[in-house]
Fold these 2 entries.
Entry 1:
Amino acid sequence: RPRVLSGIQPTAGSFHLGNYLGAVRQWVALQESHDAFYCVVDLHAITVEQDPKTLRQNSRVSAAQLLALGIDPERSALFVQSHVPEHAQLGWVMQCLTGFGEAGRMTQFKDKSARQTADHVGVGLFTYPILQAADILLYQTQFVPVGEDQRQHLELTRDLAQRFNKRYGKTFRVPEAYIVKDTAKIYDLQDPAAKMSKSVPAGMVELLEDPKRSAKKIRSAVTDAGREVVFDVVEKPGVSNLLTIYSALTGRAVPELEADYAGRGYGDLKKDLGEVFTEFVTPVQARVAAYLDDPAELDKVLARGAERAREVASVTLARAYERIGFLAPA
Ligand code: AQP
């Protein structure tokens, strides 16, 4: 079975619709046919300041959401990144292989650092994609299910794997991004030119917020001139984004939805999408609450996941250390 790995940050507590449709939905589908490793990447979360209590809680909330959305811990290894020390260890190795200029070309760093004052931009935010490369390479990962925004980081990962292999002999599998075109980028409801992102809460739909609030956000989504419900990313990016979300949540094809809404306005589409989302998210929220009701059990699931992850990660790290020339402990 081909190996997949992906991670999600616990920074916001709730995932947003972009995280779910762009990434987590594929995680759930892939676990059927792949050897899957999924992690809550708390090491990545501290690239911006976190309150310790909130971070700890948000890691559980993130794991609970993954379970509630369909990750099956019997099939997938579900774990917290900091429970597997090999991530930080291989991360250091990868940092030593990365060029300064190469890291500086990462557009996500440019975007994220631009939103903060220079004194607040930690070096960790800069080296974040390098740690991400280690996350992936530790598992000899074949496919990495992510949203479009991660494509550049995946390219860096591939470059680092190839560089290491060339210098020290074949050690890592060179992974591929697994990006589902239709939902690769979910856009901000208030600014359909930008990706939906937790940094811009106004145009984001959160899985754990009151669905009434989500429905309201959907009703007030920025749409376009005209009134016809047609998928056209250039002329109608706002409406197209709503159709993408609608189609993904219902499994109904976009042309079918267009036909359904022919002669009706944007208002109907938005109102119905609010209902579709509410129907989807209500049972998810109930399951999240149930998992969070029993944190000891949740922690046990995560401990088992970390154990499975370490079995693989420790072998890869040992091999990499040996190749590099580190003296093996007696
Ligand atoms: N808008 C999106 N459309 C499709 N996929 C998306 N992802 C994020 N936003 C979208 C995918 O979600 C996965 C987990 O993301 P993350 O934990 O790395 O979070 P992030 O990218 O930091 O999330 P945000 O909201 O995009 O945060 P900021 O504002 O910090 O940039 C990834 O696979 C990602 O591609």
Note: Residues 8-9, 16, 18-19, 22-23, 146-147, 149-150, 185-186, 195-199 surround adenosine-5'-tetraphosphate (CB under 6 Å).
Entry 2:
Amino acid sequence: FVSGTGKKPLRVAITGASGQIGYQLCFRIASGEMLGKDQPVILQCLELPQALNALKGVSMELDDCAFPLLKGIVQTDDPNKAFEGADYALLVGARPRSKGMERGDLLKANAEIFSVQGKALNNHANRDTLRVLVVGNPANTNALIAARNAPNIDPKRFSAMTRLDHNRGLAQLAEKLKCSVTDIEKFAIWGNHSATQYPDVTQTVVKGKSAKTLINDEKWIKENFIPTVQQRGAAIIAARGLSSAASAASAAIDHMRDWTFGTNGQWTSMAVYSDGSYGADKGLYFSFPVIVDKNGKYEIVQNIKLDQFSQERFDVTRKELLSEKDGVASLLPN
Ligand code: NAD
Ligand code: LMR
């Protein structure tokens, strides 16, 4: 399996590979955007039996791109095969919500999928290298289910996606402050990937100055910025008639790339296994500000002072995650 670049291919499992998000992810990963332009990959695609034909079409198109880094494509409806030796797993395959639903409404429809896939990851993935990103909603609680069903895998190897919310926040702030997204530091999403998430600008710095001071409009932050980020997924569904896909795939690539190569000292947002930091109950998959070092090890940023407003928002999203957890108790083995 040694390719022209001398590197051994990494095995990247993608579930729901022929869905809206999967259709974006396969091509971007195969072109080297996630793991680097010198890193060969094998895509291990999982789909439902009824979508295997569509997956065949995706696989044909991947062939037709003649990507130099793409060393193999697995097409299967068997999670045990899809996760065999996986170094990365992007768990996307699940039902999306439609207009009028909250993401939590998907709990019953999707929870079982993540229990089955957690077990298959436990038995077949590469436990020493694995990084799991749950995208399928409700993402945080699905990550909890998958991790708890994989007792032999370090729960820190599982995560859920709040990078899309993070990127949405950066875009709104850049527009407001007429700056580039790269000028913005120390912005973070706390909690659940849901309407209770807390996009926090209290620590945010833009070109060395406090974003709050620059914005100078508490009302805009509370009544415009925060709800816009919280409700952006619903706004996309209302506009497109379908849930976000290209932006979601882009955020998934950002998440995995940064978790691999590091964030260069900068904050990003990832829903990770809570060690109890800030009073987020241990074991929940909770979005925190994190910094990833160049070896791919993440740390939850510590010693942030939460003001009263932030603490209230934090508690709302924490409580929602606890109630989602209660709702799936039967799928959480001890
Ligand atoms: P989609 O319906 O276009 O695609 C989902 C695909 O998953 C389908 O092809 C389906 O056949 C497949 N699938 C369903 N169950 C499966 C299973 N058990 N195993 C393997 N494949 C399975 O949906 P989409 O727009 O790609 O969205 C996928 C999920 O991602 C949804 O739950 C959506 O809500 C979620 N999402 C999350 C975020 C986030 O920020 N965390 C952002 C966007 C979308
Ligand atoms: C999003 O944030 O766009 C996704 O989670 C899809 C949704 O249901 O909002």
Note: The chain has eleven helices and 14 strands.
